């Protein structure tokens, strides 16, 4: 691995051979933010994470923000305990004889003083666990145990945080408890996070980048909002119609206190605003917000719609059309004018697409029946 490949960012070139499986990847990932590893069971997500951690002895090279952990060409190899990483598993795996604070301080002792960059108080505040410190794991809920496990991983002051389906063992209520804390991690700590998940909802909410895997190889990679709406991406084609969705990000630009209505500006064009009702929210002006729009909640018209309860209607250009199950068509849109990189998916009936003669290059208006605020 040459010097240019070990600068800022994560570089991993790995091959792992098993009797029934081959992992073969060559990755260059951002040095901060959340990158989701997504794909079907058995595609190699966990094997990739374990190989980067040194828990599996794959062939190749691994470097994180300029620090080489493995380079077989120059016979460099750091065992797992010498790699500056935090690892969060599906189960919290806390030491039952230690309190929550004792578990976190165990992680703190793993980091040499020269590398300690995250204060214990910052971690405790970030994960909202001050009231749990004196308790033992057996007295904590599943969500509380997982937050303590994340705190223990962060206490090592890692250069990368590896998370292997950290919410999969939790029920919906406990997941909802933990997700707001995960939202804050990479933003507050400027820390790269590799996040394995089977849940497209988690990926949509948390990830900046997505890496789609199949049969041990990477088949798509890029910004999550782009990969989710690409007609040629395997992810778009593989998701069932009720999970196909778009992600849009923008900044809060207005608030109507009487109607509890918030508005978000997408890009620079004033025609591109989204509105939603959220009575308990307290956003700041210019605060960044991410919304998820299900394709089934987007309808199309050839003219601006009036006399409707639908709040959101965006001018757009059709950029792609493809069949999506019996009697349904998936339409890819680009917001117009401007915002060339902002795409939206609409799932409409085949009959509607035929009657409206929907085709690439056509100007339409996308009507959004509802949006979901992710963060």
Automatic annotation (TrEMBL):
Q: Which Pfam families match?
A: ABC_tran, TOBE
What domain of life is recorded for the organism? Bacteria
Domain spans labelled Mop:
307-375
> What InterPro entries has UniProt attached to this entry?
AAA+_ATPase, ABC_transporter-like_ATP-bd, ABC_transporter-like_CS, Mo/tungstate-bd_C_term_dom, ModC_ABC_ATP-bd, Molybdenum_import_ModC, Mop_domain, P-loop_NTPase
Question: What keywords are assigned to this protein?
Answer: ATP-binding, Cell inner membrane, Cell membrane, Membrane, Molybdenum, Nucleotide-binding, Translocase, Transport
Q: Which SUPFAM superfamilies match?
A: MOP-like, P-loop containing nucleoside triphosphate hydrolases
| Domain ABC transporter: start-end pairs | 5-240
Alphabetically, the GO molecular function entries are: ATP binding
Q: Could you tell me what this protein is called?
A: Molybdate transport system ATP-binding protein
């Amino acid at each position: 691995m040459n010097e240019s490949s070990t600068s800022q960012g994560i570089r991993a070139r790995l091959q792992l051979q098993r009797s029934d499986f081959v992992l073969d990847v060559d990755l260059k990932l951002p040095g901060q933010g959340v990158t989701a590893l997504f794909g079907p069971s058995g595609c190699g997500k966990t094997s990739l994470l374990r190989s980067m951690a040194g828990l599996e002895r794959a062939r190749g090279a691994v470097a994180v923000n300029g620090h080489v952990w493995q380079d077989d060409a120059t016979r460099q190899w750091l065992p797992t305990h010498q790699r500056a990483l935090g690892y969060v598993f599906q189960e919290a795996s806390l030491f039952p004889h230690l309190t929550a604070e004792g578990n976190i301080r165990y992680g703190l002792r793993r980091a040499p003083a020269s590398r300690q960059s995250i204060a214990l108080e910052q971690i405790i505040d970030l994960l909202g666990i001050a009231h749990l410190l004196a308790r033992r794991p057996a007295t904590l809920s599943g969500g509380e145990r997982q937050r303590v496990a994340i705190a223990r991983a962060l206490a090592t002051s890692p250069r990368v945080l590896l998370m292997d389906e950290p919410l999969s063992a939790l029920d919906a209520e406990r997941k909802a408890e933990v997700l707001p804390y995960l939202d804050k991690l990479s933003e507050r700590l400027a820390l790269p996070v590799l996040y394995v998940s089977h849940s497209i909802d988690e990926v949509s909410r948390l990830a900046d980048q997505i890496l789609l895997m199949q049969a041990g190889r990477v088949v798509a990679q890029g910004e999550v909002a782009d990969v989710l709406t690409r007609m040629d991406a395997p992810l778009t084609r593989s998701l069932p119609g009720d999970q196909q969705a778009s992600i849009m990000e923008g900044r809060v630009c207005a608030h109507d206190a009487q109607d509890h209505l918030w508005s978000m500006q997408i890009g620079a064009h004033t025609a591109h605003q989204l509105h939603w009702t959220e009575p308990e929210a307290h956003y700041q002006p210019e605060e960044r917000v991410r919304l998820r729009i299900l394709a089934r909640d987007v309808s199309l018209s050839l003219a601006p719609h009036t006399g409707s309860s639908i709040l959101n209607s965006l001018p757009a250009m059709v950029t792609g059309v493809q069949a999506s199950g019996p009697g349904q068509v998936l339409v890819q849109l680009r917001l117009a004018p401007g915002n060339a990189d902002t795409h939206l998916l609409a799932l409409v009936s085949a009959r509607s697409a035929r009657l409206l003669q929907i085709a690439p290059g056509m100007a339409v208006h996308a009507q959004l029946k509802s949006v979901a605020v992710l963060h």
